[in-house]
Amino acid sequence: MIRTLHYDAPAWDKREIMRYARIRGADNSFDNLIDDCIRQAEPLLTYRVCCTTLPVNADGSITIGRERVASQTIGKAIRGCESAILFAATVGAPFDRLIARYSRVEPSKALILQAIGAERVESLCDAFCSQMNTELRDAGKCLTRRVSPGYGDIPLVWQKEIFAVLDCPRKIGLTLDQSLLMSPSKSVTAIAGIADKCEEQADQCAACDKTDCAYRK
Predict the structure, then answer these.
(1) Cβ-based neighbour number of residue 17 at 10 Å
(2) How far apart are CA 72 and CA 140, in angstroms?
(3) What's the CA gap between 195 and 136, in Å, rounded?
(4) Mean predicted confidence (pLDDT) in 108-130
(5) Top-level CATH class of 3-199?
(6) Exposed, middle or buried by CB within 10 Å (0-12, 13-18, 19+), for 24?
(7) Cα-atom radius of gyration of the chain, to the nearest Å?
(8) Going by C-beta distance under 8 Å and a sequence separation of 6 or more, which residues neighbour residue 121?
(9) Most distant CA atoms of the chain, gap in Å
(10) Based on the number of CB atoms within 10 Å of its own CB, is 60 exposed (0-12), middle (13-18) or buried (19 or more)?
(11) For 143-163, what is each residue's pLDDT tens digit?
(12) pTM score, two decimals?
């Protein structure tokens, strides 16, 4: 069964927006520009997620559609789990059009809007995972950290099966082109294990193996 969920706007995190925009330190000169971009973006953003639960195979792999997915990155995330949650999240197409408009006429504003989009979709993923953890808590379970295609050794080509399984175009208006680019662009697909032992989870950056990432916290 595919669940479709709609969310109110998560709390804004301007520090995260600055991090995604690669604005270093306490540079207050961008405050007005960021505030202006938030005002323009806010009415255009929608927060939608579709998800399903999949069993984990006995060998620690997972089957997504017709594809048996064996990956060290996924294996680490779902180790010891009997099932996992597969989900897709998007903040909508109207916001993409706002970015495209400013890319032509005001690149500095487009840069901030790109950062806002990244912060918004990650905040949406956090809100979804928080809700799932609340639902799982009564059974003594919780989510492991989420991982996505393009991260670690997870190939982007698996997006095709993810989109088919979740029925992303119909459920949340999210499509995938032949180059494996998502539209709307500010979207995420991810998988997280459902664990029995709910130890405190490290944040996404602290748990990531990619230490040279420009966006690392």
Answers:
(1) 23
(2) 26
(3) 9
(4) 98
(5) alpha beta
(6) exposed
(7) 18
(8) 89, 90, 91, 186, 187, 188
(9) 54
(10) middle
(11) 999 999 999 999 999 999 999
(12) 0.89
